[in-house]
Design goal:
Pfam families: DUF6596, Sigma70_r2, Sigma70_r4_2. The chain is mainly alpha-helical. Among the domains are: 107 residues; 113 residues, no CATH class; 56 residues. It is built from 20 helices and two strands. Helix 7 packs across helix 10, helix 10 runs parallel beside helix 12 and helix 12 runs parallel beside helix 14. The longest helix has 27 residues. About 4% of the residues have low confidence.
């Protein structure tokens, strides 16, 4: 294996293991900022040693052991109680096979999941809602500040400052690394759901890089969502989020060609949609609806996804119902992005001219000024109206705004097709 191959392997291992590594260290140190630093130190050590020694059989456990040795040094400097220090020292001296020690098992609470503890800690009310989501995406999703900034449609320096301040605040306030109980748990639930869904979305439609999708992030978000659903089985929005993620994830295999190019929803081979995930999603949605009450944003989005999942062909999709559900969602969750999605549904239900009128009403919306999907949607509607020269300009603008390589190529191809259509009307 070449040095380049090893570095690629390290990058892959880091993407998979970093969140668990940070979460495990944070529980020991009660300091998420320090945990992230020690995790990064372990990564540096791997980059130095593995090219000479090769990638170990259990790279995640190797990283955890290396990081725990550094954690012991921190605990020693902080003069924590001798019993805990000795237990931690004894743990790291032994061979770690599955990344989870007896001590870690002993310290588990009713959820038994370090990653979920980390989400609830990062979503502490001492932080602003924006900081909670940004910090958790950074620590658990492994996203860069640029990727998070694009998810929130705000400048990258803003996200960077939020993350730095959030870690400092958690350390200064000595926030315990735990899953809260009772009413405090319920208060943090909305932020936790938001974070899990943002992680899922980053996997479902990657904001930057060369991959259109990152299934490992979708799988991680669904895993966390399932743990949370087991914790709060009577919370409609928890079940709604689970339903939404399961239904959307059912399309992952059909969203790209064998070489990774995007395939839009109307063009997907629905035989490749995962029937098990669809059944699980529809069952979770049914459970959520049986609990009664006003449908929240996640349950509404799941209901929209269910319309697609139940349609055997793209032509059979009930777009009028989808448009009505988006109108309901716009009331529950006012947002220019929801309005943009509603415009697409209206265009499918009532024609591209009706959708274009709604899109044009969003032209001066500040949050959408640099959002690539606004010109992308407008280009699609103009193309359907055979206004090909205008459509080409919109697709070209969208291509300059996206940071995803696959999506940029796709938009450029659409622009070229419109240019050709304009030359030969």
């Amino acid at each position: 294996m070449t040095a380049t191959d090893i570095h690629r392997s390290i990058e892959a291992v880091w993407r998979i293991e970093s969140a668990r590594l940070i979460a495990g260290l944070a529980r020991m140190l009660r300091d998420v900022g320090l945990a992230e630093e020690l995790a990064q130190d372990a990564l540096v050590t791997a980059l130095e040693r593995w090219p000479q020694t090769g990638v170990p059989d259990n790279p995640g456990a190797w990283l955890m052991t290396a990081a725990k040795h550094r954690a012991i040094d921190q605990l020693r400097r902080k003069k924590l109680i001798e019993r805990k220090h000795e237990a931690l020292a004894y743990e790291t001296e032994g061979e770690v096979e599955d990344g989870k020690s007896e001590l870690e098992t002993m310290l588990d609470d009713d959820i038994g999941d370090d990653l979920l503890r980390l989400i609830f800690t990062a979503c502490h009310p001492v932080l602003s809602a924006e900081a909670r989501a940004a910090l958790t995406l950074r620590l658990l999703g492994g996203l860069t500040t640029d990727e998070i900034a694009r998810a929130f449609l705000v400048p990258e320096p803003t996200i960077s400052q939020r993350i730095v301040r959030a870690k400092r605040t958690l350390a200064e306030k000595r926030i315990p690394f735990e899953v809260p109980r009772g009413e405090e748990r319920n208060e943090r639930l909305a932020s936790v759901l938001e974070v899990i869904y943002l992680i899922f979305n980053e996997g479902y439609a990657t904001t930057s890089g060369d991959d259109w999708i990152r299934p490992e992030l979708c799988n991680e978000a669904m895993r966390l969502g399932r743990v949370l659903a087991g914790l709060a089985p009577q919370e409609p929005e928890v079940l709604g989020l689970m339903a939404l993620m399961e239904i959307q994830a059912s399309r992952l295999r059909a969203r790209t060609t064998p070489t990774g190019e995007p395939i839009l929803l109307p063009d997907q081979d629905r035989s490749r949609w995962d029937p098990l995930l669809i059944r699980r999603g529809l069952a979770a949605l049914e459970h959520a609806e049986k609990l009664g009450g006003t449908r929240g944003p996640y349950a509404l989005q799941a209901a929209i996804g269910a319309c697609h999942a139940r349609a055997r062909t793209a032509e059979a999709t009930d777009w009028k119902r989808i448009a009505a559900l988006y109108a309901e969602l716009a009331q529950a969750l006012p947002s220019p992005i929801v309005e943009l999605n509603r415009a697409v549904a209206v265009a499918m239900a009532s024609g591209p001219a009706a959708g274009l009128a709604l899109v044009d009403a969003l032209a001066d919306e500040p949050l959408l000024r640099n959002y690539h999907l606004l010109p992308s949607v407008r280009g699609d509607l103009l193309s359907r109206l055979e206004r090909h020269a205008e459509a080409r300009e919109e697709f070209e603008r969208a291509a300059t705004l996206t940071r995803n390589g696959r999506e940029r190529t796709f938009l450029q191809q659409r622009a070229a097709a419109c240019a050709e259509a304009a030359r030969h009307p």
